[in-house]
Each structure stands twice: as structure tokens, then as C-alpha cells.
Amino acid sequence: MCDWGHEFVYLAVVLDVYSRRVIGWSLGRSLQTSLPLSALNQAIANRQPSPNLVHHSDWGTQYASDEYVQRLEQAGMFISMSRPARPWENGRHERMHRTLKLETAMPPAFTLREQQARFDEFRRCFNKERPHEALAFATPDSLYVASTRLYPKELPAHEYSDQFVVRQVRKDGDIKLEGKHIFISGVLSHERIGLLLMEDQLYELYLGDTLLGEVDTHWMTFTSVR
To answer: Which domain holds residue 82?
Structure first.
């Protein structure tokens, strides 16, 4: 966060924990989910992560939002979050942001473009030139190894056993179940979901192996597990 007196700008960053390399980065005037989601998508494109990667964050509402969580699940990541009031559980990230703010935003630049240029130079130096004590004074770029896995442009459709009722979420986020239109989520548009009948008119909703919530066809509602 950078304070210009008349407004704030915010920076979302994704770090590779092993090398400390910044792999995702997004600057904006709003703390809406679109900001960290942009950084996450950049990190996924750069890192090409293998399945079962652990994504760790604090309890910011953006990171717990349906849109952000579902993007992590689509990429096959496990979700980890710091416990409330324990910033040291995200210490590497907190330390990087402290250094970044001291070196680029105190005082801030006069324009957003100038501030972006400061941040970009910090990232270049942080990744390529700055020795890190925790890395035995190596640089992040010297330890970072890009994944050899090619992240697919289109993920394969989820498959479900015969006990599931399978539906494809429509463009507007609806599904049709028991003759009723029920809104699920716009984020899941065009996704193939599985519905497991638990009791009369009550289904568990899955995206692949991940339980997302429950669908009640009597009340025509979807309730997220989060």
C-alpha cells in the first residue's frame, strides 16, 4: 500500500518461497479481488506449477473470495492461510513488503506511472542483484528453477463417477437441476461440476475432487462451504 495523501495504491505480490523470487506482481487503485487475482495468474503463467503446490496467504478477504479460491482449485493448488493475528506465519512476505515500502514509497512518487517504475526497478534488483541472508547470500534468480511442466492452455474437463449428477455451469452461472434454474457462481461458468445427492432435494456440489458447497433445490440456493 502506498499513500499519496489523496488516494492509496495497492500492490499484490506472489513469491516463490524456496528462492524468494517475485513471480507475480500487480499494482492498482483498488483492493478488489481482481488485483491479487491478476498477480496470481501472472505467477501461474511464469511458474507453470505442478499439481499439489501449496499456496499460502494471510486471511485477507480477497484471498478467501470465491473467485480467488476457485482459481487456486482450478490450478490444482492446496490452500494454506496464516492463523489470525500471526503475521510471522507469512514472515517472508511481510519482510519483503517492509523493504519494498521503505525503498520505493517513503516518500511516494508523484504519479502512478513513476510509482510503477520504482516498483519494477525494486523487483528487478530484488530478484537479480540483492543477496539474501536466508539464501546464504545468494540471489533469488540464482536459485529459481522454472518448472519443466507446460501449463495447459485449457484444463481437461473434470470426470465424475456414476453416483454424481453432472452439469455444466451456464455462462450466467446457473445450472438446471430438478427442472429448476439455480445460480451457482459466475466464476464457474462453462465448468463441469458434479452433484452428489445427500438427502431429498439436497446435493453436495463438487468441482473435481473439491467440495465447494451444497445445493438445495427446494429453496433453489447454493451455499458455499467457505
So the answer is: 2-143
